[in-house]
Predict the 3D structure of the following.
Amino acid sequence: MQRCRNLIVVFGDQLDHQSAAFQGFDQARDLIWMAEVAGEATHVRSHKMRIALFLSAMRHFATELKAKGNPLEYRKLDAKDNLGTLATELSAAVAKFGPERIVAVEPGEFRVEQMLKQLAAETRITLEIRADRHFFCQRDEFAAWAKERRELRMEFFYREMRKKHRVLLENGDPVGGKWNFDSENRGSFGKSGPRDIRPPRQFAPDEITGEVLASVEARFGDHPGSLEHFDLPVTAADAELALADFIEHRLPGFGAFQDAMWTGEPFLFHSRISAALNLKLLNPRRVVAAAEKAYFRGHAPLAAVEGFIRQILGWREYVRGIYWAYMPGYLAMNALEARESLPDFFWDGKTEMNCLRETIGQTLEYGYAHHIQRLMVTGLFALLFGVDPVEVHHWYLAIYYDAVEWVELPNTAGMSQFSDGGIMASKPYAATGKYISRMSNYCAGCKYKPEDSTGEKACPFTTLYWDFLLRHQERLLKNPRMAMQVRNLARLSPDKKKEIRAAALRIRETTPKGGY
Ligand code: FAD
Ligand code: SF4
């Protein structure tokens, strides 16, 4: 086997033809390396849809690379001699091709970056890790911004990004006179529910995807979730169509109903482009530009466009910055000392709490839930129940098809579980069942009553909310944004508090957990 100059490593979430990894690529001397490995599907028990999406998108990308005449070593999962992990497969490739240098773009996971560094050190081969220009904000740029601040807040980061990248600006000022239209993004559907929302464009599985689906079912049949509804874009061309479909049909309604939830309506006005973005099939600059254009051509209102752009240019970049600034320590943080195991119903949806049954059921069926379902239904329950944040993290990383650790971990551990003590969010997202009742129709189909904290029909969210405040009141009182919520405890009599603590204990003791 002829030695190669550069071995260009392309991971499953780096499917970008414009990637910095290909800069200076010489077809005569360099070799691209990609590998499907079982270890990446099993290190957390991944939803079948997540496994299938990565494999199918990788195979399509490989086909495109080959069509351009690029030399490629592609290791298939089903190959008899597949070694099962990225580290063992890459070591074998290094031994086979004896490269002078390993070239990669910054991986999406700390663990994978460490693996690359270790392998390079062991084999004494030069490793060149290139900045990921998919993102608006580079890792060192975020670190420098964070260093200058006592407290990190997304809103200020987002304004900097708007200014730097000249997004929704008019003579240097924000279009519409303010940076943020969040207060207009919290509408619910009222009793009549959502009407006439065009569902996301579907992409029927082609031959490559068909093969992947069969292989995933055969090999990972006991993993959670279903493949029945696999209709995701798996190429850059299809991802563009998915984006265009969202801009045309759902962006105008995105703002007002961003936080709303409804039974049997998983997608509502959401874009469903997170996976295409995270696999780098779609460039965030294109997404932001398309949304901005929709505003300027009068197709979508400012509150919708600003709200959407804030998610991409603000939150998505901010969470990546947090991840790389605080890893690996971030994973071990547990500010609220939460030690419970994850309830078993997170894996099968078998619970009498209708909001959780709906959200988890839909997650198993589609590998998808929108932000508020993740934050204020599953995430909220785990927070109030007191689940160990690492267990919560493993669940989110496994169960959503768009999960890559740099984006999943800060959202889960930081935003939803407050395990970082306030680095990511200024306060815990704690609420009673009444929040869910206001934002959805879930409670109408539930045996519990969201307003009851004790008694036969007490909503477990409401019981656990008051119990959460009681357990953490000392710590929470120090947080000015929580003080008012905590002061409401004064409204409860000592007997009521006792009753709540006892009811919460019963919920914890009788909920089957740790079984998966
Ligand atoms: P839309 O609602 O249409 O939003 C548009 C885009 O904005 C998304 O595609 C996404 O790229 C971006 N975005 C929105 N909110 C966030 C956010 N908080 N952080 C980063 N980007 C954001 N997103 C992931 O991509 N992968 C994850 O693994 C993931 N895990 C999450 C775990 C928890 C506990 C929570 C609360 C949120 C998580 N998110 C994650 C963020 C968000 O929920 C998803 O990006 C969104 O629901 C994807 O659906 P969509 O494409 O329809 O998004
Ligand atoms: Fe969920 Fe409580 Fe509403 Fe039932 S009553 S759907 S458990 S919030």
